[in-house]
Amino acid sequence: MEKICILGAGSWGTAQALLLSKNCRQIFLWGRPEEGLDDFIAARENKRYLPGASIPDNVSITVDLETAVKDAGMVVLAVPSQSVRGILGKLKPLLLKEMYLVNTAKGLELDTFMRMSQVAEDVLGASIKNRYAILSGPSHAEEVAAELPTAVTVAAFKKETAFDIQDSYITPNFRVYTNPDVAGVELGGALKNIVAIAAGIARGLGYGDNTTAAIITRGLNEMIKMAGKLGTDPRTLYGLSGLGDLVVTCGSKLSRNYQTGYLIGQGLSPRDAVEKAGMVVEGFYTTKAVNDMARKMSIEMPIVRACYYVLYENRPPAEEVELLMTRRKKHEIEEVVDDSYNW
């Protein structure tokens, strides 16, 4: 591919610019004028979001959206999920029918509960599905920039789109798998952020590895329940964009969601914890959207509900842990009933 445009000059957008520059002749990395990219452009280093990583010569940094998009074969969305609709509105008159659109945001739209592919279709029309893809999986920007071995998934509605995006991203240190389950990959990336906040809160309260393991396991169960209700393949949630991303975000200092939860467990208010994170905490917004969805769909998601109470109703985290631990007795495998189980 001759030119790729990346929209979003944060840590993940910058890391993708470094990665894609190995396979593409020209990369344009776009950021909002109000983000103050002058120092970034002058130093050829994103000192604010990804310090220490030098920007290659074939990466151009710009605040001009039209310049960034013109003649690109692929446009990558590396902006927060709540900004995607607005960016797509600006992109619409510039996006040509032969351009691929790759989303790398992990979240649900707060007001509509839409996944990002649904937002893209709503703004750009149904034809965008032919060239839309989602890239997701355990991929801290700092580690990708340092060229540490990483594996992710790219999902698309058309296999040709998935294969082309796979070829654009794959390197000896960045392995890319393909998957036809767009909804499952999107949901895995969004839902795991809530569980990561829960894991962080537990660590902040002083709980240990047993607690973290329980949160990851039961959190995955909740993710699979919601994804199943929405018609996705449950195998996707056991893959890189589900379990893989869940593991990496539930105990890493590089995870904004985990760190935000940890600060809350240590006593900071949710708003202060989000502000201290310094970047967008996707799980904060996704928690509200998913809690509302679960209520409307009558899905039991106790970890999500507990996070919602802590984040939005200022309930003490320790009390929510106690409520989770003293819930009614039940079978681990929920579909099994006592009188039909072969002991």
Question: Could you characterize what this model shows?
Answer:
The protein has 343 residues and is an alpha/beta fold. The chain folds into two domains: 178 residues, NAD(P)-binding Rossmann-like Domain (Rossmann fold, 3-Layer(aba) Sandwich), CATH 3.40.50.720; 143 residues, N-(1-d-carboxylethyl)-l-norvaline Dehydrogenase, domain 2. It contains 16 helices and eight strands. The protein has an eight-stranded mixed sheet with strand order 3-2-1-4-5-6-7-8, sandwiched between helices. Helix 4 links the parallel strand 4 and strand 5. The model has no long low-confidence stretch (mean pLDDT 95).
Short description:
This protein is α/β, with parallel strands linked by helices and 343 residues long. It has 16 helices and 8 strands. The protein folds into 2 domains: 3-180, 3-Layer(aba) Sandwich (Rossmann fold); 183-325, N-(1-d-carboxylethyl)-l-norvaline Dehydrogenase, domain 2 (Orthogonal Bundle).
Which word captures the global form? Answer: globular
Approximate helicity band: 40-55%
- The CATH level-2 architecture of the largest domain is identified as 3-Layer(aba) Sandwich
The number of domains is 2
Q: Strand percentage, roughly?
A: 5-15%
Tell me the span between the first and last alpha carbons: 58 Å
Class inferred from helices and paired strands: alpha/beta
The DSSP helix count reads 16
At the fourth level of CATH, the homologous superfamily of the largest domain is NAD(P)-binding Rossmann-like Domain
- Reading off the top of the CATH hierarchy, the class of the largest domain is best stated as Alpha Beta
The count of DSSP E runs of length 2 or more, i.e. the number of strands, is 8
The spatial strand order of the largest sheet comes to 3-2-1-4-5-6-7-8
Mean pLDDT score, rounded?
95
CATH topology of the largest domain: Rossmann fold
Largest sheet: 8 strands, mixed
List unreliable stretches of 5+ residues. Answer: none
Elements, N to C (H/E): EHEHEHEHEHEHEHEHHHHHHHHH
